[in-house]
Each structure stands twice: as C-alpha cells, then as structure tokens.
Amino acid sequence: MLNFRSMRHFVVLGGGTAGWFAALELQRLFGTQVSITVIESPRINVIGVGEGGILNLPGALARYGIQEAEFIEATGAVLKLGFEYVGWNTGRDDDVFYHLFHAAPNAADGSLVDGVPVDWAMLVANGLGVQYTESALPLIQNNASQTETLGVRSALGARLPTSMHFDAHRVAAYLKRVATGRGVRLLEATVQQLDVAAENGYVTGLRIEGNEQPVPVDFLIDASGFARMTLDRQFHVPMRTFSEHLLHDRAIPFYLPHPRPQPHLVTRAVAMNAGWLWQIPVQERVGCGYVYSSAHLSDDEALQEIEARVGKIEAVRTIRFQAGHFDDVWIGNVMAVGLASGFIEPLEATSIGQMLGQVQTFGELVAGSAYIVPQTSITTFNERNRIDWMGIRDFVRMHYDVRRRDTAFWRDVTALTLPETYATLKACWQHRLPRTADLQPYRQGNFMHFEATSWISVGQGTGVIPPQAAAADLARLPRESVLKSHQFMMSVKTRFALA
Predict the structure, then answer these.
(1) H or E segment at 415?
(2) Distance, CA of 452 to CA of 433 (rounded, Å)
(3) With contact defined as beta carbons under 8 Å apart, do 219 and 10 qualify?
(4) Which residues take part in binding L-tryptophan (predicted)?
(5) How many alpha carbons fall within 13 Å on the CB side of residue 41?
(6) Which residues are part of a known binding site for L-tryptophan?
(7) How many Cα atoms within 13 Å fall on the side-chain side of residue 142?
(8) Cβ–Cβ contacts within 10 Å for residue 289, how many?
(9) Helix or strand or coil: residue 136?
(10) Rounded CA gap, 333 and 219, in Å?
(11) pLDDT tens for the 499 residues of the chain, in order
C-alpha cells in the first residue's frame, strides 16, 4: 500500500518533456500542499530533433490548463494531421500511403454499421486509399497554411482532429516555465546515488553532487531518459526487448530547411535501405533523422545514404538504443516514465503518446483510490502498461509487414517472427476488417493508442489487409448502406480525379 496522503516530498528525476509533464500531473494532483522538485542535470541534453504527438496531446494540454495558441507560440509547434509513408512497399517515391487522424466512425450517423466503417470498407474493397475519407487530405495535398488549417478545423470541429509537431527542446523549456510558475521547484544538480531503505526497498533520498544532505523523497518519478537511474541501475528490473520482432537500434538526427512554402501537415516517414527517415516540420525548419539497423549499415554508411538523398547535412549525433520496455515501471515508491521506462523507434509518435497515457493513468489511479493505493492496483497498473507496450510493438511491426525485398534489411525485417498477438489478428483480417473488439487486449484502462480504423489505414497501406476482406464485410451489410457507400466512393473518384 502507498499512502499518498502522508507524503510531502515528491521528486522528478530529470526534466525534458516526460519529466515536466509528470511534474504538472503531480501539481494537478497535490497542488501546493506538498513539495514537488524536478532535478535537472546540467550535463544531459534533451533528446529529439523534431517531435510529434498523437491525439492524446491536445487532451494533455487541456488537462494541465495550457492554451493551444500559447503552446504553439512558445514552442514553434505546427498542426499535425497524421503520417505519410513513402517507399515502404517498393522503395519508390511514388509509393505513398497515409495514416491520418480521423474521427472514429459511429453508428449514430450511419458511418459504422454492424461494426464496419462502411465508407472505409468500400474504398478498401475497390483498392482506393482510406485517406480519401478524410477532410485532412486536401489540406495536405495543397500544402495549406497554418491559418487555413485552423480555419477549416474551426468549421469542421471534431471531424478534423489534430495533434502537433514541435521542437522538443522548446517544449521542455516551456513546460518548465509553466510548472515552476505554479510552484514546482527546479534543482539543477547531478544525482550520484539513491538512498534506499533496507526494510522495504523504498527510495528515501537522492545524493547530489556537491551537497552532503540528500534530497528527501516520499515518491520518485524517474524521467532520467536513457540513463535509467532507477529501474536499470538501482533495481535491475528485467527489460522486454523487441529485437525478436524489430531490428532498429541507431538513429542519426539532423535538420533541413523547409522544402515547401508552408510546413508539411504530416510526419513524413521515407523508407531507406536499412530503415527509414523521419521528417517533422516545425515553424523554423524540419527535424529529421535516419532510424536504421547497425547490423545492416555502419554509422558512416548511414550518413552517406542520408547525404545521397538530401544533400550535405550536419549530423547532431548518433543515438544508440535498444527497443523494448521494463517489465514493471512502478516499484514501491518509484515510477519511471518516458525513455526511462522504455523506447521504440518513433514511428507513429508513440514515445510521447505512451508517456502521456501512462502519466494520466497514474493520476487517475491515485485520485480514484482516494490517495491510498493498494499494491493490487499497482500490480494491475504495471500489467496494463505492459499491455500498452504490446499494442505499440504490434502496430509498429505491422509497418514492416510489407512486400519490399530489395535490400538485406528489408529481406531480414520482413522475415522476422510476427508477435503471436499480431499474427492471430492478421489471420482474421484476411477475411474481414479489424474490429474494436479485436483490440481490447491492447487497451490500457480508458486509453488505447490506435483504434481499429488506424489499423485499417496502415494495414491497407502495407497490403496486410486485402480488398477481399473489406468486400466480405460489405456483403453482410444491408443493401441501402452499401449503395450509399458506393455513391460516396463515386464522389471520391470524381472529386480527386481517380480512375
């Protein structure tokens, strides 16, 4: 049991996006009745060259009383409407599919019938991309300005959901100003050691460089990034690696000028010889990075491939990582968040999305337990966190379930074992489209990163979901629903001049 009512000293180890969002959650939970301290090391830089959120980012800003316009102004953020994948099936630049943010089809307006998103099914059955269902697509194709996109969103409301691209360094600096303005204390120091009580394994203090007295701790949130001060160094918690299903372990970040008059409204993921290149626009420039497998490409070869595609660059550094997550992220009076709890390549912007989901779930659990949390709830929290990571792993693995075989990497990654959970679903999706019920095993409490329509978007784009699966669904629906969706498809063909 943890009695948060009796706690007075809350410490967040590490700043960055994860640390400052965690501090804001603590401040939301406990107000000014407790001491909340964020310890930032002057020797550690924020990781990230361009970052992107998913659809829980706007909700997180609202949760912490942050106005979107203020956030955009302070962080150089731009609106994001989804993801664009280039070359994943053939390696060619004209091989493009999209995963756009979208309002989930629902039975009330007839867009969902017997669990089938009817218009989506009609497009899949006829070999047309499901992005044509979305109001976002013309904005993306026309390189709409931020002002124009905001105007369309104002008119469409929930029918044009958005997230944001932003500079991670500026986000961390902005969140720091917000949190410290609300009473969170900032301590710039290097933590050298954790004091741990022998009788229960709880962290009681942090020993910092140049100070004889430890920083007192009643509850600790570890946001120390890849340093992983608690789960790895202190508690030696086992890590569940994704290497059996995914190959990437390196990234070279860099910057480029905007190639378009206006910032692109999607995160661009361009397939490369041994991985993929992210392109994330912010107001001033585009943050980029090559994510690749060191078993297939040396760092020098990766840099050469980047420059062969985009020209001379100034690489920030090479990031080495192991994809995976810790078995338990909440142990005793310590919880790890962000990179300190796990990491997977930044396809689909899951890093920040997962962190925000975990932080919110933590807050809901503490408040819902009246600030006295039984161990059974902490055990369940850890189980749900593992489930969340399993869903992310399977969704990312789906992106590599493609037809491309032209390089050693693409031959090897497509030959990797499929996770059993994903393989089971894939077998069903040869006969019908994904359903909400299929994805319940991935749900973390009230939150799930990707609903059935997201799996349809990527599954169609990679070829995992065949046209006949959608046709089989349509064959079971009432005739009037099918006729209406056929009329929709014909209007799409006319509007977008499709054959």
Answers:
(1) helix 408-415
(2) 8
(3) yes
(4) 348
(5) 19
(6) 348
(7) 11
(8) 26
(9) helix
(10) 5
(11) 999 999 999 999 999 999 999 999 999 999 989 999 999 988 766 555 668 899 999 999 999 999 999 999 999 899 999 999 999 999 999 999 999 999 989 999 999 999 999 999 999 999 999 999 999 999 999 999 999 999 999 999 999 999 999 988 899 999 999 999 999 999 999 999 999 999 999 999 999 988 889 999 999 999 999 999 999 999 999 999 999 999 999 999 999 999 999 999 999 999 999 999 999 999 999 999 999 999 999 999 999 999 999 999 987 789 999 999 999 999 999 999 999 999 999 999 999 999 999 999 999 999 999 999 999 999 999 999 999 999 999 999 999 999 999 999 999 999 999 999 999 999 999 999 999 999 998 886 666 789 999 999 999 999 999 999 999 999 999 999 999 999 999 999 999 999 7
Q: Is the pTM of this model over 0.90?
A: yes
* Residues 443 and 482: beta-carbon distance below 8 Å: no
Separation between Cα atoms, residue 215 and residue 193, nearest integer Å: 11
Name the residues annotated as catalytic: 80
Tokens of 320: 């080495």
Nearest-CA neighbor of 286 among 314, 267, 312, 306? Answer: 267
Return the SS3 of 96.
strand
Q: Which residues are annotated as a binding site for 7-chloro-L-tryptophan?
A: 80
Annotated binding site for FAD: 15-18, 191, 339, 352
Measured CA to CA, the distance from residue 21 to residue 225 in angstroms comes to: 14
Is residue 42 classed as helix, strand or coil in its secondary structure?
coil
Q: Which residues contact 476 (CB under 8 A, 6 or more apart)?
A: 114, 116
Residue 28 CB neighbours (<10 A): 15
Rounded Cα distance between 453 and 436, Å, is: 9
Structure tokens at 22: 């965690």
